[in-house]
Amino acid sequence: MAEISVIMPVYNTKEEYLRQAIESVLKQTYKDFEFLILNDSPENPEIREIIAGYGDDRIHYSENNEHQGIPQSYNKLLDMAQCKYVAIMNHDDIMLPKRLEKQYKFMETHKEIGILGTGYKKFGEINRFKRILYPTKHDDICAYLLFKSAIHHPTVMLRHSVANEYKIRYNENFISLNDRQLYCEFAKYSKLANLPDVLYKYRFHPDMTSKKQKGVIVSERAVFHKLWFAHNNIVLKPEAVDIFDHYTTYGRRKIKEPSIIANICETLDYISEENHKKHFLDVAAFDKICGKYMSKRCFNAIYSRQINVRPYVEKSKLPIYYKGLLKLSNALLGWRK
Asked: What is the pTM assigned to this prediction?
């Protein structure tokens, strides 16, 4: 039996993108895998014909009776997978040739790891060329999860036995944040890690879920925060919940009132203090991330509305990034002490 199940849901993918995705998997330096492709657009016979044309015995094609959605399709593929490891693949991206080989070798020698991601490079119609590397250590990855995903989902290789033993599957109520919820579940029973290597190319284009479902994703983010706080027995005031959902973890909204930055800083300090008491995450790692987000929002407040952030910076016990620069920014913009 093969060692790796590569799983890939497909939904009305452009032929060019689909072919590039399939061929990048078939050209992996590691050859011992099964390739499970699930067509979630059964009304599109062209998809079926493209996949059938490859004639590779490692490809196992199936299709849903009707469109079901991303998390439902991933769960179906997880149930179908037969191998020790499961590697995620997007239908419009490209695996670099040594991805499976490097992840397999790492997972074989690190039995404590349940999920392993890699670095990636952006490319595509929107002209993105940025390389992204995430933290490699479990404590740092977990510290990020309240704020963002620190594992890029389509680069994931997961240990199938952990998913099956603890009945871990994707949350089908989420369109976008089901990956972060999956990581939180895996972290209860195993370690998370990233390789410090770029092994994947992530395509940017106008039809991406993150581009077309922005409103839904904002709502999902709020639900995820609520679940995270409940799991860690943290109770926030209603106004703090609203500020956290719409400002603390989302940097594109301009901070226009001192009360907003005050609430952000107070909330981050409070969450940090709760972790100091309960130790639900590594204290140093989580403080570092809270301090990073406080710093970002302080800069936002400075340059959006010239709000004096000095009182909040000096009061906080968090490790503030660029503390001297924040104070200098206040001075340069003409604020009084």
From this structure: 0.92
